[in-house]
Design a protein that fits this description.
The protein is α/β, with parallel strands linked by helices. Helix content is 29%, strand content 25%.
């Protein structure tokens, strides 16, 4: 089984501290880590880790812009550990990759993030390899390479390859992408135009004919809707003592892609919620895998 993850690739500098700095203040971190980041990237790592445990022939492919700046070597080395196949949409660019600086508060696990997303590193459809969907079983799109994502989603839909969208926040172009989506997994911060309430968000997504819809709320239950049956409900999220919530949503999406290939929608949501909650017990976006049983 192979999954294709399309979107943002960053270099994350993650610090654990008692609190974020105030103006003109210097603080000393208790711990730090460096890793490749971005919603699609973290999801690809989670999928690869879980899938290699259960079925070594499963593969994660990551489609985004990495380039050839010296800093990208850190990204490539990190992803190589997790057997991620990178397809670079602009291998020749020497621009530095987007860098995120993240401070995680020790007492609460909450995070403060300063970053540049993929706005300055957008690829066009000509950069898409002709065989990108060959042997692909599921596609996840995080919206950070929207033009590429729309093109691939259309092709995937025509070839009966399920498409998952990571709706972290609304981005221009989602209105063109969403009609080709099978699973819309959105955060509570996802607000389509003229949608102020969660019910309005669900109605917007339902009217597009998306078969499966879910909205996450951090440690609170996941709300879902199934178009075919009209059934809606809640999926509980396991309680945990959060050390770091960074990347939990991304890990949820990667785990969902892994489980939905072998479970039904509700079971996949339940399994993904357990993985995401477990990941919050560890600092950074990778250390949970060292203790997962």
């Amino acid at each position: 089984m192979t999954a294709l993850f399309i979107g943002l690739v960053t270099l994350d500098l993650i610090y654990l501290a008692q609190f974020p700095p105030q103006n003109n203040q210097k603080i000393v971190a208790a711990d730090y880590t460096v890793a490749a980041g971005g919603p699609a990237t973290n999801a690809a790592v989670a999928f690869s880790y879980l899938s290699c445990r259960d079925a070594p022939w499963r593969v994660s492919r990551l489609l985004g812009i990495v380039g050839s700046h010296p800093m990208t070597q850190l990204i490539r080395e990190d992803l190589q550990k997790y057997q991620i196949e990178i397809t670079d949409l602009d291998l020749t660019t020497t621009n530095p990759p987007p860098v995120s600086s993240i401070i995680v508060t020790q007492a609460s696990g909450e995070r403060a993030v300063v970053s540049i997303n993929a706005v300055k590193t957008q690829a066009n459809t000509e950069a898409i390899p002709a065989d990108i969907l060959q042997n692909i079983d599921i596609v996840l799109i995080d919206g950070h390479q929207m033009t590429v994502g729309i093109e691939i989603a259309q092709t995937a839909k025509a070839n009966n390859i399920p498409v998952v969208v990571d709706g972290g926040s609304w981005k221009p172009g989602f209105d063109k992408l969403l009609p080709f989506v099978d699973y819309a997994i959105c955060s509570a911060n996802f607000h389509p135009p003229n949608c102020q309430t969660e019910e309005e968000v669900f109605n917007y997504l339902r009217q597009l004919g998306i078969p499966h819809i879910a909205i996450t709320h951090g440690e609170k239950p996941v709300k879902y809707f199934i178009q075919e049956t009209g059934v809606s409900g809640l999926i509980d999220v396991p309680k945990t003592a959060a050390v770091d919530t960074l990347g939990a949503g991304d890990i949820f999406h990667g785990a969902f892609c892994h489980y939905v290939l072998r479970e039904n929608f509700l079971d996949a949501l339940t399994s993904a919620a357990k993985i995401a909650a477990f990941s919050c017990e560890f600092f950074g976006t990778r250390r949970w895998m060292e203790s997962f049983q």
